[in-house]
């Protein structure tokens, strides 16, 4: 099934880079990431990353900033 998505330019560039690095098509990468994300959702929330400086006060961040920080978590 075909669909059209309007993606932010930085996200599109990251997807294209990931596809090139993995030797896959953009379609393959997007399908894999969607399936992975949808498959993980019913299992509950992902564990939070460990904070290197535990106990220190973290700066206040917006919802969007927090998602941006977590976006790359688990890629390594």
Map the helices and strands.
Elements: H1 9-22, H2 26-40, H3 63-71
Helix pairs in contact: 1-2
What does this structure look like?
By secondary structure, this protein is mainly alpha-helical. The chain has one domain (9-71). The chain is 50% helix and 0% strand. The chain has 3 helices and no strands. The chain has helices at residues 9-22, 26-40, 63-71. α1 crosses α2 (26-40). The chain is elongated, with a radius of gyration of 15 Å. The N and C termini lie far apart (31 Å). The model has no long low-confidence stretch (mean pLDDT 81). This is Antitoxin VapB41. Keywords: Plasmid. InterPro entries: Arc_rbn_hlx_hlx, Ribbon_hlx_hlx. It comes from Thermus brockianus.
